[in-house]
Amino acid sequence: xxxxxxxxxxxxxxxxxxxxxxxxxxxxxxxxxxxxxxxxxxxxxxxxxxxxxxxxxxxxxxxxxxxxxxxxxxxxxxxxxx
Length: 82
Known about the structure:
By secondary structure, this protein is α+β, with helices and mostly antiparallel strands.
């Protein structure tokens, strides 16, 4: 009986981690699009640079000129643009 509980607990924790990662990535991209739109640009593409940290390379167009930036999100969802 205890083995079934351990397996169910492990599957539950794994599903929480997967849901957390999917939501977090979706939220990061939503914030990136909002920031670029706020400065008047249009996002060309977003590439995740790190698996462990939430660091993205963002390419966007502003007044028909291509720009690139890197953004890092902290655990508290603060943005750091480089």
